Amino acid sequence: MNIYIGNLSYNVKESDLHQVMQDYGTVESTKLIIDRETRRSKGFAFVVMPNDEEARNAIRELNGAEYAGRQMIVKEAISRN
């Protein structure tokens, strides 16, 4: 399952987020979205978890939770297509 994580602190690193998500199960990939011009985080990321049950549990537990001083938005990512 592809998970959207928004409202992240600009100081959060991809490795930090990967570690947090691993507490809920297997993480296939973590991608923090970076602005091309400023090279700074845009404050959101996508995480792929192959086990849907683990992913749904992570969404339930982390949506609205505070991380690095901000309340995260965690939900299933919607495909652009």
Helical run tally? 2
Classify the oligomer.
Answer: single chain
Distance between the termini: 16 Å
Number of domains: 1
Uncertain spans, ≥5 residues at pLDDT below 50? none
Mean pLDDT: 96
Describe the structure.
The protein has helices spanning 14-22, 52-62, and strands at 2-6, 29-34, 41-48, 66-67, 70-71, 73-76. The protein is of the alpha+beta class. It has one domain (2-71): 2-Layer Sandwich (Alpha-Beta Plaits), CATH 3.30.70.330. The strands form two sheets. It has a four-stranded antiparallel β-sheet, with helices on one face. The protein has a two-stranded antiparallel ribbon with strand order 4-5. It is globular, with a radius of gyration of 12 Å. The two termini are 16 Å apart.
Précis, in short:
With 81 residues, this protein is of the alpha+beta class. Helix content is 25%, strand content 33%.
Notable characteristics:
6 strands, Alpha-Beta Plaits, four-stranded antiparallel β-sheet, 81 residues, 25% helix, alpha+beta, two-stranded antiparallel ribbon
